[in-house]
UniProtKB/TrEMBL annotation:
Subunit description: Homodimer.
Keywords, ordered alphabetically: Methyltransferase, RNA-binding, S-adenosyl-L-methionine, Transferase, tRNA processing
Domain TsaA-like: 6-147
InterPro entries: TrmO-like_N (IPR023370), TrmO_C (IPR041369), UPF0066_cons_site (IPR023368), YaeB-like (IPR040372), YaeB-like_sf (IPR036413), YaeB_N_sf (IPR036414)
Gene3D superfamilies with a match to the protein in the record: YaeB-like
Superkingdom as given in the UniProt entry: Bacteria
Species classification: Bacteria, Pseudomonadati, Pseudomonadota, Gammaproteobacteria, Enterobacterales
Record field: catalytic activity: N(6)-L-threonylcarbamoyladenosine(37) in tRNA + S-adenosyl-L-methionine = N(6)-methyl,N(6)-L-threonylcarbamoyladenosine(37) in tRNA + S-adenosyl-L-homocysteine + H(+)
Family to which the UniProt record says this protein belongs: Belongs to the tRNA methyltransferase O family.
CDD domains documented for this protein: UPF0066
An MF annotation (GO) of this entry: RNA binding
Protein name per Swiss-Prot or TrEMBL: tRNA (adenine(37)-N6)-methyltransferase
Amino acid sequence: MSQFTFDTIGLIHSPYKEKFAIPRQPGLIEDGGGELELIAPYNQPEAVRGLEEFSHLWIVFVFHQTMEGGWRPTVRPPRLGGNARMGVFATRSTFRPNPIGMSLVELKSVETKGGKVILKLGSLDLVDGTPIIDIKPYLPFAESQPQARGGFAQDAPLADMPVSFSEVAQRQIGQHQQRYPHLQRFIQQVLAQDPRPAYRKGESEDRIYAVHLLDFNVRWQVKNGITEVIDLNSV
Ligand code: SAM
């Protein structure tokens, strides 16, 4: 047996509506949580019985938005500035022989009402609509390894880009305060990671970037080493 077929058991609902600017791992920012909704025939409350007793889960998913790109034996991790090559299996690149990812996420609650089974999750690194193929509880006794070596990714990536908000952006954020009380913090933390591709970082500073977060098209510009959020418009 060398080929296998797996079913999608659920879908991710995430504030990240496109790949650009998504944190590279879960838990890197405070906000950016979402939901995992199980789909039939896996959306049975019995299938998640006992899961609420775990604080964290492994979710196993398909990199469905990059799978057509295939794979190569070496990749250039963004962490190394996009220059050095590492073996694909030494990285978390999305371009893998089997386009499967795994994220360790906080489980905030399990909701099983109205024929739906929904897992409320903490800070994600997944694009909206990501297909989930398995869920497993995180087992601290076996999986917590504080002494582990992390290779070229030993330390958390820097997220120290200063971010300011124009008056327009601040006013727009204020208008959505009730629905999204942490909207400013969310945008600030996403952009503090400086999601621009490495090859653009030394370029002219006139370029305006945009990303679809939640219901908004967020536009920003980098000037004198500071990210300024220009505005956010509902999409
Ligand atoms: N934690 C997982 C892992 O280690 O397998 C994923 C790490 S991967 C580096 C995270 C990045 O994958 C995100 O920053 C985003 O750009 C990209 N991504 C997220 N969801 C995706 C999807 N469904 N298809 C393709 N790329 C995705």
